[in-house]
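Subject: design request, 356 residues
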């Protein structure tokens, strides 16, 4: 289910930045977990919504695609509301930016989310699929040129069977210390060693394929599973299929799906809509028709006395989604005869006399 960030903050889509800020402040106070009636889950939701909607770029992405592509951090960044916990630079393989931390410490709000483990870029590609495949789901295989983990060494950068030796940069500790200035004096901050990626060990001989980088630039075949019922413009996120970085987290692949329009069918949510022209006499007397649907031919009974634009609803022949299906809506149009024969005119004259 897509998250509705506007809903979470209780503001309309047209809300100004100021409105969003006000709504956030109010709700953050209300749900703050330190309060007696706080609600941590709600507090996190509100935070997440604010992170997106208070950022012009993210808000635009969210409005357009229903999600954002900020990469690591993003929504999780804000942690400094009222209290500040869990700061332990030595515990994680994380490079902290003290500027950000002090902003949070002093209630500067927002920001954060930067730093963290190195992460490869996200990639976005587009595919176009026929209408019917979008309704029932499909797969596509695409070739993407990108930086991936080296398959020869599985990303380690070491030659197979090579002995490991102690990393000289960090003396095998996996971390290096750095002095940083701050308003409180000089801090020593530890961060993960770039050379060994925190393992403290480096290979004596490097992998010949990637020259020890652990990553290579190559073309990769990627199989995309398009779920049934996907809508035009939807985005599929494939976690870990983006660009790899040495000793870091691989980015994600975003697939923007375009659905080609169909000559016969269109969609209204989970319902399929089609038009069916019938003769004037059939509209008056009723009839049976064989209709070609996405599920094959079906027999449809058209009741007598139908009017122009009336819709027949065929249950369960619409778009599948999560184990159920929408309906097929057949919009009837009545073909009026352009020319009337002498005999037809006479017959209609007699209808007229009957008051029709
Ligand atoms: Zn390699
Ligand atoms: Zn090292």
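Subject: RE: design request

Done. Sequence follows.
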């Amino acid at each position: 289910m897509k998250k509705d960030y506007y809903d979470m903050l209780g503001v309309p889509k047209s809300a100004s930045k100021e409105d969003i800020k006000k709504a956030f402040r109010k709700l953050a106070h209300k749900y703050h977990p330190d309060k007696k009636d706080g609600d941590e889950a709600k507090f996190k939701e509100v935070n997440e919504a604010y992170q997106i909607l208070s950022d012009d770029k993210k808000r635009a992405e969210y409005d357009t695609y229903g999600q954002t592509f900020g990469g690591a951090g993003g929504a999780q960044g804000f942690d400094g509301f009222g209290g500040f916990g869990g700061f332990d630079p030595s515990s994680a393989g994380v490079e902290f930016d003290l500027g950000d931390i002090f902003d949070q410490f002093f209630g500067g709000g927002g920001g954060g989310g930067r730093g963290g483990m190195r992460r490869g870029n996200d990639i976005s590609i587009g595919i176009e699929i026929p209408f019917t495949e979008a309704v029932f789901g499909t797969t596509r295989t695409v070739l993407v040129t990108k930086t991936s983990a080296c398959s020869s060494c599985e990303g380690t950068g070491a030659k197979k069977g090579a002995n490991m030796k102690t990393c000289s940069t960090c003396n095998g500790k996996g971390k290096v210390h750095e002095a940083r200035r701050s308003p409180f004096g000089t801090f020593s901050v530890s961060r993960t060693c770039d050379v060994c990626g925190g393992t403290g060990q480096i290979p004596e001989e490097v992998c010949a394929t990637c020259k020890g980088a652990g990553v290579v630039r190559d073309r990769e075949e990627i199989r995309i599973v398009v779920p049934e019922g996907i809508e035009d413009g939807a985005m599929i996120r494939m976690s870990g299929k983006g660009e790899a970085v040495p000793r870091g987290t691989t980015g994600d692949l975003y697939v923007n799906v375009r659905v080609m329009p169909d000559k016969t069918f269109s969609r209204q949510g989970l319902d399929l809509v089609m038009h069916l022209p019938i003769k004037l006499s059939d509209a008056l007397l009723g009839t049976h028709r064989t209709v070609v649907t996405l599920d094959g031919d079906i027999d449809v009974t058209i009741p007598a006395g139908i009017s122009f634009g009336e819709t027949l609803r065929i249950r369960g022949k619409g778009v599948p989604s999560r184990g159920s299906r929408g309906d097929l809506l057949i919009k009837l149009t009545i073909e009026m005869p352009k020319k009337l024969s002498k005999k037809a005119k006479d017959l209609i004259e007699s209808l007229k006399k009957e008051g029709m």
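The pocket of zinc ion (ligand 2) is lined by residues 167, 169-170, 174, 193, 195-196, 200 (CB under 6 Å).
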